[in-house]
């Protein structure tokens, strides 16, 4: 491909993907279908939306309602989740399979209503069934209400930076082998930026994502970590990055040489083009704290090209990124992020009526007779919250709740760990390895002020966990290493300007505390956003009961809900 043609196609793709805020519409058509894509010297068929990888960008103003008509022309069941969209009183189109809906079967349609409320900045959408989200995902840009500017310097342009993972093998085969083996999944073959691996991978250099900047101007990077199992560090060589938003809520500016972002998280980041005209790498690679846990340790790159007359280098220098196991670097970043209290939809709750402390653990289950299992010592990997590994039912919990169908789920998710031990100790009793299995949910009264402490454990192996809650954002009031101390640690909570997120990184062998008010009636999923941990059962469900007023109750389902 000639340079001119390549440049034209990249410019065309860029403008089709990011456009202008004026290109906002109230209806979108998402056709899920197979498409052939070539990466790393080989071609395979992948599931896409409208043939695009990544998928189309949705653009709205704060507080708007839109509709997405989803038509499944693929070969597999599918659901779509609008990650970070709180969907007030509308769990029916939230998306997680068998939690709020049955999947959209091949040949079927579902018209999904997206109700935006207090979101502002970058969020995203993705498949929420099996491992389809590896290729079915895209960004959502939520602009301020009309004629209202962002509270940071106006950017010359906005640029999508969507990180993901790429497997040479068919992702459904990767998923099936993972489930059948009982062990860990095969690691990805590449990381990608906007679907492209970058210069450091074979057969990739000519398609590396690149964007052009002018010296002295500021650019808004709309960053999404759509990777399946990898927390990432990323940076731009010789440039600082300034975070001004996270998970669809604006933040106080935080300037760093690098950024840490987990699967599920999104960020709005300003890049000031204040260096000498040249080519610079934007690069990302994994952070992985699990001892002995295999991970993709490659580096993905994009090129930042300054305009002007100069001789570019044949290979730009890579930015300095923290080491793959640099937990202090992660803690320094996540604990430095601060919210903008004047933008909070409500102030930080202080009168807590419902307190939950939950362990989050990697576990094992015995290998069934007649089967060979590849988990530790011939077992099957599992995961749990408060020692319960979640069993996903075969009809959705929301339907069962609304229509009073018995036998699908049970209330009584524990609000405190059933076993008290040195959660982060080095040598733990083997009896802790095996969790209970069940479909336990946590029922909340409407208006409850909730505090959740996520306590990581060293059962089997400690690792960081990005915990995501559907239907809500929460104030992240505290982090710590080791075991949470109820008498000491709350004294250090940040109740003034904590970040307001929907996905929180719980540090390896540590804890994180969040608070929210349960004013969104319905059924809402909570899970680890490391895909392998969700498959293993590190999840639960909140059911928020109806309030008294008509605008505090769950309405009936739409008429075209997918059938199981």
From TrEMBL:
Pfam families linked to this entry: Cu-oxidase, Cu-oxidase_2, Cu-oxidase_3
InterPro entries in alphabetical order: Cu-oxidase-like_N, Cu-oxidase_2nd, Cu-oxidase_C, Cu-oxidase_fam, Cu_oxidase_CS, Cu_oxidase_Cu_BS, Cupredoxin, CuRO_1_LCC
Superkingdom of this protein's organism: Eukaryota
Domain Plastocyanin-like: 32-146, 159-309, 422-547
GO terms (BP aspect): lignin catabolic process
Principal subcellular localisation of the protein: secreted
Gene Ontology terms: cellular component: apoplast
Catalytic activity: 4 hydroquinone + O2 = 4 benzosemiquinone + 2 H2O
Cofactor(s) required, per the database record: Cu cation
Molecular function via GO: copper ion binding; hydroquinone:oxygen oxidoreductase activity
Record keywords, A-Z: Apoplast, Copper, Glycoprotein, Lignin degradation, Metal-binding, Oxidoreductase, Repeat, Secreted, Signal
Function of the molecule: Lignin degradation and detoxification of lignin-derived products.
Record-stated family: Belongs to the multicopper oxidase family.
Protein name: Laccase
Species this protein is from: Glycine soja (Wild soybean)
């Amino acid at each position: 491909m000639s340079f001119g043609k390549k440049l034209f196609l990249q410019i065309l793709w860029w403008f089709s993907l990011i456009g202008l805020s004026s290109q906002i519409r109230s209806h979108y058509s998402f056709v899920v279908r197979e498409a052939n894509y070539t990466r790393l010297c080989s071609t395979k068929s992948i599931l896409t939306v409208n043939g695009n990888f990544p998928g189309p960008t949705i653009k709205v103003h704060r507080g708007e309602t839109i509709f997405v008509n989803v038509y499944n022309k693929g070969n597999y069941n599918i659901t779509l989740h609008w990650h970070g969209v709180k969907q007030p009183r509308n769990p029916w189109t939230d998306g997680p399979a068998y939690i709020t809906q049955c999947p959209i079967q091949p040949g079927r349609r579902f018209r999904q209503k997206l109700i935006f409320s207090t979101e502002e900045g970058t969020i995203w959408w993705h498949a929420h069934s099996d491992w389809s989200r590896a290729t079915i995902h895209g960004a959502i840009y939520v602009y301020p209400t009309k004629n209202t500017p962002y509270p940071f310097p106006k950017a010359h342009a906005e640029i999508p930076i969507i990180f993901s993972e790429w497997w040479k093998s068919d992702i459904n085969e990767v998923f099936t082998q993972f489930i059948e083996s009982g062990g860990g999944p095969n690691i990805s073959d590449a990381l990608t930026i906007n679907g492209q691996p970058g210069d450091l991978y074979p057969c990739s250099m000519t398609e590396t994502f690149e964007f052009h900047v002018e010296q002295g101007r500021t650019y808004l990077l709309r960053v999404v970590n759509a990777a399946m199992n990898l927390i990432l560090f990323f940076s731009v060589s010789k440039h600082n990055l300034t975070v001004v938003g996270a998970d669809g809520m604006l933040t106080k500016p935080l300037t760093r040489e690098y950024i840490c972002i987990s699967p599920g998280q999104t960020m709005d980041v300003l890049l000031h083009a204040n260096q000498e005209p040249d080519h610079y790498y934007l690069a990302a690679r994994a952070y992985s704290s699990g001892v002995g846990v295999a991970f993709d340790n490659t580096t993905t790159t994009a090129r930042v090209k300054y305009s002007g007359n100069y001789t570019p280098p044949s290979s730009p220098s890579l930015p300095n990124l923290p080491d793959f196991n640099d937990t202090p670097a992660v803690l320094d970043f996540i604990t430095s992020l601060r919210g903008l209290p004047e933008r909070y939809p409500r102030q930080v709750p202080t009168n807590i009526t419902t307190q939950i402390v939950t362990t989050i653990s990697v576990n094992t289950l015995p290998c069934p007779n007649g089967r060979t299992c590849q988990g530790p010592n011939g077992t099957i990997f599992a995961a749990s919250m408060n020692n319960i590994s979640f069993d996903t039912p075969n009809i959705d919990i929301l339907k069962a709740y609304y229509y009073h169908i018995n036998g699908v789920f049970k209330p009584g998710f524990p609000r405190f760990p059933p076993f008290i031990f040195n959660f982060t100790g080095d040598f733990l009793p083997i009896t802790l390895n095996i969790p209970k299995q069940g479909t336990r949910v946590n029922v909340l009264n409407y208006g409850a002020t909730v505090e959740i402490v996520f306590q990581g454990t060293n059962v089997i192996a400690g690792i960081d966990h990005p915990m995501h809650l559907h239907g809500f954002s929460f104030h992240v009031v505290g982090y710590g290493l080791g075991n949470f101390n109820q008498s000491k640690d709350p004294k250090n909570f940040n109740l003034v300007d904590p970040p307001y997120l929907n996905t929180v990184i719980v540090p390896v062998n540590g804890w994180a505390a969040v608070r929210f008010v349960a004013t969104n009636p319905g059924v809402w999923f909570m899970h680890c956003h490391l895909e392998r941990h969700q498959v293993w059962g590190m999840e639960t469900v909140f059911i928020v009961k109806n309030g008294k007023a008509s605008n505090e109750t769950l309405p009936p389902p739409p008429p075209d809900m997918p059938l199981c």
